[in-house]
Design goal:
Helix content: 25-40%
CATH topology of the largest domain: HIT family, subunit A
Number of domains: 2
Shape: globular
CATH class of the largest domain: Alpha Beta
Structural class: alpha+beta
Length: about 350
């Protein structure tokens, strides 16, 4: 038994599992470790000690590689990347600069300053919809929050944003019945891809098949069921649970991903998009903001099709994925060529993230 489990000793943690749990884990994941070695010249040693704690820390660096054999997702973990020298835009806080500068707000009067869908707008208690002026897809709308600051949200507000987006989807599908595949995305602040600071989320409804990555996940899960006679998402949760990366609350399964795309990726899995799931979405967002200090994030809500389809969606749950996109003051992007073409490079520890989630949400 590993006394202090972490991503760094994941191999040892898996090796200590009971035989059945170990077999299930290895059915989905492979874990390998390697050591990166380098020599630090004397002239650099004072800076290295100040930046990374010691010369020894960088001379031999343990890197953990986790690959999902079913979906081909992968991540490379190295905690030292938390301490890289990173250039910031300015000493002034992003929040102070953008939330308190008195500049004109594009979304302050959405009914005047934004287009609407041909079927009109849906008004929630805390938001209203608009049609996106530069669309991802034929049916592409926005939920514009009444609250300017996207980090000032309550449980009631988050639930209202989701409910308003779902009503938009119902009305959009009534207009175009063949559009059955729904996606809700909240990009919080520019580092997460938002072009406008004012709080807003986006929703799309497409036809023919779900968006490519979601369709790939459906096919992978279907192939898994055919090969192993088991539900992939159930087993994915059990594999994460076996190494301490999960929490279950109100019928919602929550896991800290072992193959995150970016730092601190959290996945929520539920049988349906009901009130308990919406409450857990709020709680994870509040955990990000209040416990982790996350300012910029991506959230995606993925559902099975809204109507019957020719392809099978048997056993496919409702899923929510969240990513921490880092400090908006940092000048460099958090995604580079390796992330785009090879595997994610991650500094955060999903086992530690899960421990903090359990303390905060449990």
């Amino acid at each position: 038994m590993v006394t202090n489990p972490s991503i760094t000793n994941l191999e040892e943690t898996v090796a200590s599992l009971p035989a059945k749990a170990k077999e299930l884990f290895h059915r989905i994941f492979t874990v390998t470790a390697t050591v990166g070695e380098l020599s630090v010249p004397p002239s650099m040693q004072p800076w290295v000690e100040q930046q990374f704690g010691s010369v020894e820390n960088v001379s031999r660096q343990k890197i953990i590689r986790v690959t999902n054999l079913i979906t081909s997702e992968g991540a490379l973990f190295n905690w030292l990347r938390n301490y890289r020298p990173i250039e910031t835009v300015s000493e002034k806080s992003f929040v102070d600069e953008f939330f308190n500068d008195g500049q004109p707000d594009t979304f302050c009067c959405p009914e005047e300053n934004t287009p609407e869908d041909t079927f009109g707008r849906i008004a929630g208690k805390y938001c209203i919809t608009a049609s996106n002026i530069a669309k991802y897809d034929g049916l592409h709308g926005m939920v514009i929050f009444n609250e300017f600051n996207p980090l000032q949200f309550s449980q009631e507000q988050v639930i209202d944003y989701i409910d308003t987006a779902l009503e938009w989807a119902r009305q959009a599908q009534a207009k175009r019945p063949q559009a059955k595949y729904f996606l809700f995305v909240w990009n919080c602040l520019c580092r997460a891809g938002a072009s406008i600071v004012h709080g807003h989320a986006q929703m799309m409804l497409t036809e023919g098949s779900h968006y490519a990555k979601i369709e790939a996940l459906r096919r992978a899960a279907l192939g898994y069921r055919q090969k192993y006679g088991s539900n992939y998402f159930d087993d994915l949760f059990l594999a994460h649970q076996s190494v301490g990366c999960t929490l279950e609350k109100g019928g919602v399964r929550i896991l800290a991903s072992l193959t995150p795309f970016r730092d601190n990726e959290i996945i929520l899995i539920a049988d349906k998009l009901d009130l308990p799931l919406k409450e857990r979405i709020y709680e994870v967002l509040a955990f990000y903001r209040d416990k982790m200090g996350v300012v910029s994030f991506n959230l995606s809500l993925i559902t099975p099709p809204l109507a019957a389809t020719e392809e099978s969606w048997e056993g496919f749950p409702v899923m929510v994925k969240l990513l921490d996109r880092g400090d908006p003051n940092i000048r460099s992007s958090d995604v580079g060529g390796v992330e785009i073409y090879a595997a994610s490079v991650v500094a955060s520890d999903p086992i530690e993230l899960a421990q903090q989630m359990r303390q905060h949400l449990g």
